[in-house]
Amino acid sequence: MDKTPFLMALTGVAAACSSGKEAAPEKPLNVVYIMCDDHSYQTISAYDRRFMETPNIDRLADEGARFTNSFVANSLSGPSRACLLTGKHSHKNGFTNNEHGIFDGSQQTLPKLLGAGGYQTAIVGKWHLVSDPTGFDYWDILTGQGDYYNPVFIRNGERLVREGYSTDITTDVALQWLDRRAQDKPFCLFLHYKAPHRSWMPDGQDLGAFDDKEFPLPSTFWDDYATREAAALQEMSILKDMNLVYDLKLADRENEIHTPGNPGLENYGRDLYRRNLPEGELVPGRMNAAQQAAWDAYYDPIIRQFKRDSLQGKELYAWKYQRYMRDYCSVIRSVDRNVGRVYEYLKENGLLDNTVIIYTSDQGFFMGEHGYFDKRFMYEESFRTPLLVRMPGGKKGDIDAMVQNIDYAPTILELAGLPVPEDIQGESFAPFLKGKKVKDWRKSLYYHYYEFPAEHSVRRHYGVRTERYSLMHFYNDIDEWELFDLKTDPQQLHNLYGEPGTEKLTRKLKKELRRLQQLYEDPIGQ
Ligand code: SGN
Ligand code: CA
User: How far is the CA of 336 from the centre of ligand 1 (A)?
Assistant: First the structure.
């Protein structure tokens, strides 16, 4: 084997670390990149203590860096994953939306660049890019969105059903790969959990973990969307669109639960979890007898109580919110436990001092803000994504620079001591991790969301966000601009666009938006 690129990597790491305060690691830097699906920063206690404790995820923040201004480029699963792999915006990597996207695996990607630099790479868990993974030494991915229970995986092309709970299994498979990996090469492991994606199905051991908790309603829960047309047009409202049977698991055997405003959806998704497993046969997604028994023991009394109470109006909506939060947070408990398993594995195997651990999500998520679940909007809760990085000898504490998921590829390459190709659009934030100040770091971010018409009916939009302002343009079947002053209106309730006195600011922001569209060569700006 030609050792040159590998040696380059080693030299790069040594050089990179020599500037840090702690002793430079002698071994090359490995990377464990952990990405959840739809994990909101609001439900990570390192970011927000209102909802739940996540001690294992928090440990990464305690021992590393917490990014306080971390964003995505297009708040949706497939597009985010394509941004990660390419370091490019959606219009450049070609994967703009989940519905029609097929990732072009022949293009330059992070795993290919790492592989050429002497790294061994693996991806385990959610993939969601339709075409088969390319450039990884090992891939073991969930099909589509993946199932919570007894999911189907495709392992280097071979389909198999694994019995158990998705988050546990994904970790098992990842750790088994680490056990088998070549010892003479650094590694980069992409560990992509399906959790906590809709419909938020907890592991049996976590059912009921939040039953004593009364989750505070976000202050914008009853938002009337005045001044924001696109905000009103969506179909991701907990009140209107969250389904009692599919989302909140009120699937009783008599099928008597109806979701107001959603006739016809009662059976939607029912089969995801209430399917009888024929004796001795393991069927993807279906629960086995023990899983089903634990599930029923928890949900059956809730269903009975729900029928007795016949809640209406605001009481029903508040009840839906509590159920949503209980399930969602219960799913995160398993994620947190499994992050702890990964950490312990690295510790036991002497890898903590030469492995960077990155924790993030494919985008943020609404936990009832504006009355929403889901993501997609350029509004803060879904535009932002959690980002914690524990790097040996690296920065401890907050990094407030504005970073975006197109930056992950160049950052990982720089940490690996490998060159960053010119055509990558993101910027490496590795200098921040090394505790350095960076002059001329970007002062604005570009965003572009494309998936419409589609589920949840969020209109297509693009926009620019500076440290203080957020300007977005909703287009396609509407033509609406929204402008927010994040300093005076962090919850984005008051659309300033068109208000007297904002003309100069609007002109400035539109100019910046055009500059970014040209810089990133988004055809919509041409
Ligand atoms: C599914 C969900 C949606 C979700 C998308 C995209 N519906 O279609 O609620 O917005 O995934 O999510 S479901 O009925 O299938 O649960 S993403 O994170 O994969 O982009
Ligand atoms: Ca997602």
Answer: 22
